[in-house]
Predict the 3D structure of the following.
Amino acid sequence: MIARRAVLGGGLGGALALMLPDVARAAVQTMPALRQLRFDVWRGSRQLGTHELVFQPRPDGFVVDVAVDIAFRVGPITLYRYNHHAQERWANGQVAELSTRTDDNGTAHHVTGRRENTGLVIQADRAAPYTAPADALPATHWNHRELDGPWINTQSGELIHPRVTPEAPALVETANAGRLRVHRYALSGPVTLDLWYDDALNWAGLSFVKGGAEVRYARRA
């Protein structure tokens, strides 16, 4: 995810349930109504790249394809480039498979996950295999349910436990459709960022500070 290892919550209890609309409480995950999410990624006043998610139905569920393409340039010189591709396959309301590959400025990372009898088994090229907890989800952010439990970092495979604090709703700028009302969540601990969802609980964006400048996702309509 963006911000390399950091970006890509436990302990919310009843407080989070009260903050979220009723649709958030569904036990079985279905494909979102929005079949595509596209974000322009900005650092201050400079656009760094894009982050896209495409949802495709399958007979037993759906597939999510994620593509991140980011480059930091000074004039014609590229100082940093980041490419990340991930695919989640959902079946019968849960993650059945996960496959990711990342080029972090020349350093490659790979993560896979496959559901077995014991649960979702995660393997990564720089970490020991493990079986993810039942409430763990890939940190691809489209799924608001990731706020309820630990995250599977889709670059490193690491299991992380952000602390999540609901904040007051706010208006944020989109890329091409004016302002959007969002529900905000401040994450701290192993990750530090603000994560946003719209009233229908579609992922609406995020922001964090990197190198003294704000990095912000602006969603396209």
Notes: Helices lie at 13-19. The radius of gyration is 17 Å. Residues 1-27 have pLDDT under 50 and may be disordered. The chain has one helix and 16 strands.
